[in-house]
Amino acid sequence: MSAASTDMTVRIGSLELPNPVLTAAGCGGSGRELAPFFDLTRIGAFTTASVTTQPRAGRPTPRAAETPAGLLTAVGLPGPGVEPFLERDLPWLVDRDVRTIVSVAGNSVEEFAEVARRLRGVPNIAAIEVNVACPNVADRGRMFGWHPSAAAAVVGAVRLHSRPGTPVLAKLAPDVTDIARIALACVDAGADGLTLVNTMEGMAIDPVTLRPALTGVSGGLSGPAIRPVAVRCVYQVHAALPDTPIIGVGGVDSGLAALEFILAGASAVALGTTLFHEPGAPLRVLRELEDALASRRIAHLADAVGLAHKPAGYVPPRVLPLPPGDTEAAADPGEAPVVAAEAPNGASGPRRRPASPAAADAAFGAQSDGSGGADARPEAREGSARSWEARIPAPAGPRRPDAPAPEPAAADTKERLP
């Protein structure tokens, strides 16, 4: 790993954060629950549970169920309401200098606007996240995040009634037909950034009770199970809105998972489900992400954002110097930065400069037939193809009328279903 470190600062609208690792809404309680496990000021920002105008008890239990590689929840947005939040929860965070993103929710445009009005006079809010995507409210059939016009109406109302200069983020659902279209509508309505994504609608049935595992029948799926979907959403939206900051959410449980979101186009990431079984995970993920960027000699986090969209061979404008004593020659201008080959289990292989096309051809030839030369590659490939073709039976010619019928193949003697 390089002795130099990567600049991890990130900007989301007017908000500058020291690093890109956040917590996701609803997964860290009021902040007090996580405080025993790590210093909340060391992460980019803490995101509150969604705040509504009135207190909510949430759904009756059971409202959470584990699934393979994920968690299914239908909690119903429980919370004390905006007034107790302002009197008790937010002051606790402000007194400890925790950068705080306040998530807001509601059943109507008017409720979203009212929460924003109540927050307007508070100067210590880093950003407001508009939860237009939560599928766990009573009337899920009218989820704002499913329709561009509805999502835009909510975002516009929050933007209008929020404190001037406070960044507004729109949190969108992944299970829509065209998430880029909805994202564009939110940005046009005044969103300074986007949080992608919320949970996906899912369901589990208990084989013991023979009934749905959740009292709400269906719920929101989160965790590593949805990460490929979340990464796809980030990639698509970044392609459509390359200048709009994105916070990637959905199965971030390691530095490499965070890096995947950043390469897709996210400027920051938020941990959610991971916090339930590893409350101190944000600092670990931050260390792993910084190591992953430094080992790839990426000097600034911003240079990695959306790197997967760049053409092959693209070189970031700023790279870290090689560590002192590194025997590898410094990369020539125009060459790609050194990349650490990382195995799936996290082990790192030798750090090598990307090979030229000719060298790659030579290596392919050596691996194909063991001769070690590029000239052997075509023959090796042809020989391999011929040996593969030799295993295919030649087509039988026409059978004479008096010739005995061929024995049926073993597979043909088995009874077949109609």
From TrEMBL:
EC numbers on record: 1.3.-.-
Organism, as annotated: Actinomadura harenae
Cofactor note: Binds 1 FMN per subunit.
Protein name: Dihydroorotate dehydrogenase
Primary residence: cytoplasm
Catalytic activity: (S)-dihydroorotate + A = orotate + AH2
Domain Dihydroorotate dehydrogenase catalytic: 9-293
UniProt-annotated catalytic positions: C134
Lineage: Bacteria, Bacillati, Actinomycetota, Actinomycetes, Streptosporangiales
Coiled coil: none
GO biological process: 'de novo' pyrimidine nucleobase biosynthetic process; 'de novo' UMP biosynthetic process
